[in-house]
Write a structure and sequence with these properties.
Keywords: Metal-binding, NAD, Oxidoreductase, Zinc. The protein is 22% helix and 19% strand. By secondary structure, it is of the alpha/beta class.
Amino acid sequence: MPGNKGVVYEGPGKVEVGEIGYPEFELKDGPGVHPANVGRKLPHAAILRTVATNICGSDQHMVRGRTTAPRGLVLGHEITGEVVETGPDVEFVKIGDLVSVPFNISCGRCRNCKEGKTGICENVNPDRPGSAYGYVDMGGWVGGQAEYALVPYADWNLLKFPDKDRAMEKILDLAHSFGCETVNVALGEPKDQIEHILGTPEVDCAVDAVGFEAHGHGHEAEVERPATVLNTLMDVTRAGGALGIPGLYVTGDPGAVDEAAKQGSLSIRFGLGWAKSHSIATGQCPVMRYNRQLMEAILHDRVQIAKAVNATAIPLDEAPRGYREFDQGAAHKYVLDPNGLLGTAA
Protein backbone atom coordinates (compact mmCIF):
# COMPACT_ATOMS: atom_id res chain seq x y z
CA MET A 1 0.00 0.00 0.00
CA PRO A 2 1.50 3.38 -0.99
CA GLY A 3 1.98 6.20 1.47
CA ASN A 4 -0.07 9.36 1.43
CA LYS A 5 0.71 12.98 2.25
CA GLY A 6 -1.88 15.68 2.83
CA VAL A 7 -2.43 19.26 3.98
CA VAL A 8 -3.42 19.34 7.64
CA TYR A 9 -4.94 22.17 9.70
CA GLU A 10 -2.85 22.55 12.86
CA GLY A 11 -4.49 25.58 14.46
CA PRO A 12 -5.22 29.22 13.61
CA GLY A 13 -2.87 30.42 10.90
CA LYS A 14 -1.04 27.12 10.56
CA VAL A 15 -1.19 24.31 8.01
CA GLU A 16 1.37 21.58 7.52
CA VAL A 17 2.00 18.88 4.94
CA GLY A 18 2.43 15.52 6.60
CA GLU A 19 1.84 11.81 6.39
CA ILE A 20 -1.81 10.80 6.53
CA GLY A 21 -3.47 7.45 6.17
CA TYR A 22 -3.94 5.92 2.74
CA PRO A 23 -7.68 5.80 1.97
CA GLU A 24 -9.62 2.70 2.98
CA PHE A 25 -13.13 1.53 2.17
CA GLU A 26 -14.26 2.36 5.69
CA LEU A 27 -14.52 5.74 7.42
CA LYS A 28 -12.12 5.72 10.36
CA ASP A 29 -12.20 7.80 13.52
CA GLY A 30 -10.25 11.02 13.27
CA PRO A 31 -10.41 14.81 13.63
CA GLY A 32 -13.92 16.04 12.91
CA VAL A 33 -15.38 12.61 12.11
CA HIS A 34 -18.89 12.34 13.51
CA PRO A 35 -19.17 9.36 15.88
CA ALA A 36 -22.12 8.04 13.88
CA ASN A 37 -19.92 7.93 10.77
CA VAL A 38 -17.05 6.00 12.38
CA GLY A 39 -16.85 2.50 10.94
CA ARG A 40 -19.11 3.33 8.02
CA LYS A 41 -18.47 0.79 5.25
CA LEU A 42 -17.75 2.23 1.80
CA PRO A 43 -17.89 -0.56 -0.80
CA HIS A 44 -19.37 2.02 -3.20
CA ALA A 45 -16.25 4.25 -3.04
CA ALA A 46 -13.28 4.83 -5.32
CA ILE A 47 -9.73 5.84 -4.47
CA LEU A 48 -8.16 8.55 -6.62
CA ARG A 49 -4.60 9.55 -7.30
CA THR A 50 -5.00 13.31 -7.11
CA VAL A 51 -4.17 15.23 -10.29
CA ALA A 52 -5.16 18.68 -9.04
CA THR A 53 -6.69 20.00 -5.82
CA ASN A 54 -7.26 23.67 -5.13
CA ILE A 55 -6.95 26.00 -2.18
CA CYS A 56 -10.36 27.62 -1.72
CA GLY A 57 -11.33 30.78 0.11
CA SER A 58 -13.68 28.61 2.16
CA ASP A 59 -10.63 26.70 3.44
CA GLN A 60 -9.16 29.99 4.64
CA HIS A 61 -12.06 30.56 7.04
CA MET A 62 -10.95 27.46 8.92
CA VAL A 63 -7.24 28.19 8.69
CA ARG A 64 -7.78 31.69 10.10
CA GLY A 65 -9.43 30.11 13.12
CA ARG A 66 -12.85 31.51 12.29
CA THR A 67 -14.69 28.19 12.61
CA THR A 68 -14.78 25.32 15.08
CA ALA A 69 -12.60 23.13 12.85
CA PRO A 70 -10.49 20.70 14.92
CA ARG A 71 -6.73 20.44 14.70
CA GLY A 72 -5.60 17.57 12.49
CA LEU A 73 -8.35 18.04 9.89
CA VAL A 74 -7.15 17.15 6.38
CA LEU A 75 -8.25 20.01 4.10
CA GLY A 76 -9.48 20.27 0.53
CA HIS A 77 -12.78 19.91 -1.31
CA GLU A 78 -11.90 20.82 -4.93
CA ILE A 79 -10.50 17.68 -6.52
CA THR A 80 -9.64 16.16 -9.89
CA GLY A 81 -8.05 12.73 -9.96
CA GLU A 82 -7.34 9.42 -11.65
CA VAL A 83 -9.12 6.33 -10.35
CA VAL A 84 -6.63 3.80 -8.97
CA GLU A 85 -8.93 1.49 -7.00
CA THR A 86 -12.65 0.82 -6.72
CA GLY A 87 -14.80 -0.83 -4.10
CA PRO A 88 -16.70 -4.05 -4.85
CA ASP A 89 -20.00 -2.21 -5.34
CA VAL A 90 -18.66 0.20 -7.97
CA GLU A 91 -20.01 -0.80 -11.37
CA PHE A 92 -19.38 1.95 -13.93
CA VAL A 93 -16.30 3.90 -12.80
CA LYS A 94 -13.13 2.15 -13.93
CA ILE A 95 -9.47 2.19 -12.91
CA GLY A 96 -7.64 4.71 -15.08
CA ASP A 97 -10.63 7.06 -15.51
CA LEU A 98 -9.86 10.77 -15.14
CA VAL A 99 -12.64 12.26 -13.04
CA SER A 100 -13.88 15.49 -11.51
CA VAL A 101 -15.22 15.38 -7.94
CA PRO A 102 -18.13 17.59 -6.82
CA PHE A 103 -17.27 19.17 -3.49
CA ASN A 104 -20.74 18.14 -2.28
CA ILE A 105 -20.78 14.60 -0.97
CA SER A 106 -24.12 13.05 -1.83
CA CYS A 107 -25.65 9.59 -1.84
CA GLY A 108 -27.85 9.78 -4.94
CA ARG A 109 -30.58 7.93 -3.06
CA CYS A 110 -32.34 10.40 -0.75
CA ARG A 111 -35.19 12.74 -1.68
CA ASN A 112 -32.96 15.81 -1.97
CA CYS A 113 -30.44 14.07 -4.23
CA LYS A 114 -33.22 12.83 -6.49
CA GLU A 115 -34.51 16.40 -6.75
CA GLY A 116 -31.04 17.62 -7.78
CA LYS A 117 -30.30 19.24 -4.40
CA THR A 118 -26.98 17.48 -3.89
CA GLY A 119 -25.69 20.20 -1.57
CA ILE A 120 -28.14 19.05 1.11
CA CYS A 121 -27.94 15.26 0.89
CA GLU A 122 -29.71 13.67 3.85
CA ASN A 123 -27.52 10.59 4.26
CA VAL A 124 -23.86 11.61 4.46
CA ASN A 125 -23.72 13.95 7.47
CA PRO A 126 -25.35 12.84 10.75
CA ASP A 127 -25.45 16.44 12.03
CA ARG A 128 -27.50 18.07 9.29
CA PRO A 129 -28.21 17.78 5.54
CA GLY A 130 -25.19 18.56 3.38
CA SER A 131 -21.57 17.49 3.40
CA ALA A 132 -18.19 18.19 1.81
CA TYR A 133 -14.65 16.86 1.91
CA GLY A 134 -12.23 18.20 4.50
CA TYR A 135 -14.62 20.69 6.07
CA VAL A 136 -15.82 21.55 9.55
CA ASP A 137 -19.16 20.09 10.68
CA MET A 138 -19.58 18.15 7.44
CA GLY A 139 -19.46 14.63 8.86
CA GLY A 140 -15.70 14.18 8.90
CA TRP A 141 -14.99 13.05 5.34
CA VAL A 142 -11.24 13.33 4.69
CA GLY A 143 -10.12 16.22 2.50
CA GLY A 144 -8.61 15.98 -0.96
CA GLN A 145 -5.50 18.16 -0.62
CA ALA A 146 -3.50 14.96 -0.63
CA GLU A 147 -1.73 12.51 -2.90
CA TYR A 148 -4.68 10.11 -2.69
CA ALA A 149 -8.33 10.73 -1.87
CA LEU A 150 -11.45 8.63 -1.38
CA VAL A 151 -14.83 9.41 -2.96
CA PRO A 152 -17.94 7.61 -1.65
CA TYR A 153 -20.84 6.66 -3.92
CA ALA A 154 -18.39 6.80 -6.81
CA ASP A 155 -20.77 5.81 -9.60
CA TRP A 156 -23.00 8.70 -8.59
CA ASN A 157 -20.50 11.38 -7.57
CA LEU A 158 -17.69 11.09 -10.10
CA LEU A 159 -17.84 12.89 -13.43
CA LYS A 160 -15.66 11.11 -16.00
CA PHE A 161 -13.84 13.13 -18.63
CA PRO A 162 -14.73 11.69 -22.05
CA ASP A 163 -11.20 12.12 -23.45
CA LYS A 164 -8.51 11.74 -20.80
CA ASP A 165 -5.60 13.01 -22.90
CA ARG A 166 -7.50 16.06 -24.10
CA ALA A 167 -8.64 16.84 -20.57
CA MET A 168 -5.07 16.69 -19.25
CA GLU A 169 -4.03 19.16 -21.92
CA LYS A 170 -6.78 21.54 -20.79
CA ILE A 171 -6.05 21.42 -17.01
CA LEU A 172 -4.58 25.00 -16.11
CA ASP A 173 -4.46 26.06 -19.85
CA LEU A 174 -4.07 29.83 -19.56
CA ALA A 175 -3.68 30.58 -23.27
CA HIS A 176 -6.94 32.44 -23.82
CA SER A 177 -8.01 35.78 -22.42
CA PHE A 178 -11.47 36.91 -21.42
CA GLY A 179 -13.31 40.15 -20.80
CA CYS A 180 -14.58 41.50 -17.49
CA GLU A 181 -14.75 44.75 -15.54
CA THR A 182 -13.65 45.17 -11.95
CA VAL A 183 -14.36 47.59 -9.13
CA ASN A 184 -12.21 48.27 -6.08
CA VAL A 185 -14.37 48.56 -2.95
CA ALA A 186 -11.49 50.24 -1.12
CA LEU A 187 -12.07 53.27 -3.39
CA GLY A 188 -15.70 53.70 -2.39
CA GLU A 189 -19.19 52.37 -2.89
CA PRO A 190 -19.54 49.70 -5.63
CA LYS A 191 -22.79 51.30 -6.81
CA ASP A 192 -20.98 54.44 -7.96
CA GLN A 193 -18.31 52.47 -9.80
CA ILE A 194 -20.92 50.25 -11.45
CA GLU A 195 -22.71 53.34 -12.73
CA HIS A 196 -19.45 54.63 -14.18
CA ILE A 197 -18.99 51.36 -16.08
CA LEU A 198 -22.57 50.61 -17.15
CA GLY A 199 -24.22 53.98 -17.15
CA THR A 200 -26.66 52.72 -14.52
CA PRO A 201 -26.03 51.90 -10.85
CA GLU A 202 -27.78 48.54 -10.97
CA VAL A 203 -27.16 45.05 -12.32
CA ASP A 204 -29.54 42.23 -13.25
CA CYS A 205 -27.97 39.61 -10.98
CA ALA A 206 -25.29 39.52 -8.30
CA VAL A 207 -23.26 36.85 -6.52
CA ASP A 208 -21.81 36.87 -3.01
CA ALA A 209 -18.66 34.77 -3.19
CA VAL A 210 -17.12 36.41 -0.10
CA GLY A 211 -19.08 35.17 2.89
CA PHE A 212 -19.00 36.04 6.56
CA GLU A 213 -15.51 37.63 6.73
CA ALA A 214 -16.57 40.56 4.54
CA HIS A 215 -15.13 44.04 5.10
CA GLY A 216 -16.48 47.53 4.59
CA HIS A 217 -16.05 49.95 1.70
CA GLY A 218 -13.89 53.04 1.29
CA HIS A 219 -12.38 54.19 4.58
CA GLU A 220 -13.85 51.07 6.24
CA ALA A 221 -12.17 48.65 3.85
CA GLU A 222 -9.96 47.32 6.66
CA VAL A 223 -12.88 46.94 9.08
CA GLU A 224 -14.83 43.69 9.29
CA ARG A 225 -18.49 44.20 8.39
CA PRO A 226 -19.97 40.69 7.94
CA ALA A 227 -23.24 41.84 6.35
CA THR A 228 -21.62 44.26 3.88
CA VAL A 229 -21.73 42.09 0.78
CA LEU A 230 -25.30 40.91 1.33
CA ASN A 231 -26.55 44.46 1.84
CA THR A 232 -24.58 45.74 -1.13
CA LEU A 233 -26.06 43.06 -3.38
CA MET A 234 -29.58 44.07 -2.39
CA ASP A 235 -28.66 47.68 -3.08
CA VAL A 236 -27.11 47.22 -6.54
CA THR A 237 -29.43 44.52 -7.93
CA ARG A 238 -32.44 45.86 -9.79
CA ALA A 239 -36.02 45.17 -8.77
CA GLY A 240 -36.95 41.68 -9.94
CA GLY A 241 -33.30 40.64 -10.09
CA ALA A 242 -31.63 37.64 -8.50
CA LEU A 243 -29.01 37.07 -5.80
CA GLY A 244 -26.80 34.00 -5.56
CA ILE A 245 -25.06 33.47 -2.23
CA PRO A 246 -22.51 30.63 -2.37
CA GLY A 247 -20.18 32.61 -0.07
CA LEU A 248 -19.86 30.75 3.21
CA TYR A 249 -21.87 31.77 6.27
CA VAL A 250 -21.53 29.76 9.48
CA THR A 251 -23.52 29.15 12.65
CA GLY A 252 -20.37 29.29 14.79
CA ASP A 253 -17.67 31.97 14.36
CA PRO A 254 -15.46 32.34 17.46
CA GLY A 255 -13.65 35.33 15.97
CA ALA A 256 -16.72 37.37 14.99
CA VAL A 257 -16.98 41.10 15.68
CA ASP A 258 -19.99 40.79 18.00
CA GLU A 259 -22.02 38.21 19.88
CA ALA A 260 -24.77 38.04 17.26
CA ALA A 261 -22.31 37.39 14.44
CA LYS A 262 -20.73 34.60 16.48
CA GLN A 263 -24.02 32.75 16.02
CA GLY A 264 -24.39 33.71 12.35
CA SER A 265 -26.93 36.48 13.04
CA LEU A 266 -26.28 39.50 10.79
CA SER A 267 -27.95 42.88 10.31
CA ILE A 268 -29.27 42.39 6.78
CA ARG A 269 -31.53 44.86 4.97
CA PHE A 270 -34.04 42.15 4.20
CA GLY A 271 -36.81 44.72 3.84
CA LEU A 272 -34.96 46.19 0.86
CA GLY A 273 -34.63 42.78 -0.77
CA TRP A 274 -38.30 42.10 -0.15
CA ALA A 275 -39.37 45.47 -1.57
CA LYS A 276 -37.33 44.82 -4.73
CA SER A 277 -38.79 41.31 -5.06
CA HIS A 278 -35.38 39.70 -5.28
CA SER A 279 -35.00 35.99 -5.93
CA ILE A 280 -32.44 34.64 -3.46
CA ALA A 281 -30.61 31.31 -3.57
CA THR A 282 -28.06 30.30 -0.97
CA GLY A 283 -26.25 27.32 0.52
CA GLN A 284 -23.82 24.86 -1.00
CA CYS A 285 -23.90 24.94 -4.79
CA PRO A 286 -25.60 21.80 -6.15
CA VAL A 287 -22.51 20.98 -8.21
CA MET A 288 -23.99 18.08 -10.12
CA ARG A 289 -26.58 20.34 -11.73
CA TYR A 290 -23.82 22.16 -13.58
CA ASN A 291 -20.57 20.21 -13.67
CA ARG A 292 -21.16 18.22 -16.87
CA GLN A 293 -22.16 21.31 -18.86
CA LEU A 294 -19.23 23.22 -17.40
CA MET A 295 -16.80 20.44 -18.27
CA GLU A 296 -17.99 20.47 -21.89
CA ALA A 297 -17.72 24.27 -22.01
CA ILE A 298 -14.10 24.12 -20.81
CA LEU A 299 -13.13 21.30 -23.18
CA HIS A 300 -14.59 23.20 -26.15
CA ASP A 301 -13.05 26.57 -25.23
CA ARG A 302 -16.34 28.30 -24.49
CA VAL A 303 -15.09 29.43 -21.08
CA GLN A 304 -11.58 29.91 -19.69
CA ILE A 305 -11.99 29.50 -15.96
CA ALA A 306 -8.30 28.97 -15.23
CA LYS A 307 -7.54 32.33 -16.81
CA ALA A 308 -10.41 34.00 -14.97
CA VAL A 309 -9.08 32.97 -11.56
CA ASN A 310 -5.35 33.21 -12.45
CA ALA A 311 -4.78 29.54 -11.64
CA THR A 312 -1.24 28.86 -10.42
CA ALA A 313 0.05 25.32 -9.92
CA ILE A 314 2.39 24.59 -6.99
CA PRO A 315 3.70 21.32 -5.47
CA LEU A 316 1.86 19.86 -2.48
CA ASP A 317 4.81 20.62 -0.19
CA GLU A 318 4.37 24.33 -0.93
CA ALA A 319 0.76 24.35 0.30
CA PRO A 320 1.62 26.34 3.47
CA ARG A 321 3.12 29.08 1.28
CA GLY A 322 0.06 29.02 -0.95
CA TYR A 323 -2.25 29.42 2.04
CA ARG A 324 -0.11 32.22 3.45
CA GLU A 325 0.11 34.19 0.21
CA PHE A 326 -3.57 33.67 -0.58
CA ASP A 327 -4.48 34.97 2.86
CA GLN A 328 -2.32 38.04 2.25
CA GLY A 329 -4.28 38.85 -0.89
CA ALA A 330 -2.27 37.23 -3.69
CA ALA A 331 -4.31 37.35 -6.90
CA HIS A 332 -3.92 33.64 -7.58
CA LYS A 333 -6.03 30.51 -7.39
CA TYR A 334 -3.45 28.09 -6.05
CA VAL A 335 -3.77 24.61 -7.53
CA LEU A 336 -1.86 21.89 -5.70
CA ASP A 337 -0.07 19.26 -7.80
CA PRO A 338 0.42 16.36 -5.33
CA ASN A 339 1.77 13.83 -7.80
CA GLY A 340 3.59 16.02 -10.33
CA LEU A 341 1.05 15.26 -13.06
CA LEU A 342 0.33 18.86 -14.06
CA GLY A 343 3.93 19.35 -15.10
CA THR A 344 3.66 16.22 -17.22
CA ALA A 345 0.60 17.62 -18.97
CA ALA A 346 2.34 20.92 -19.68
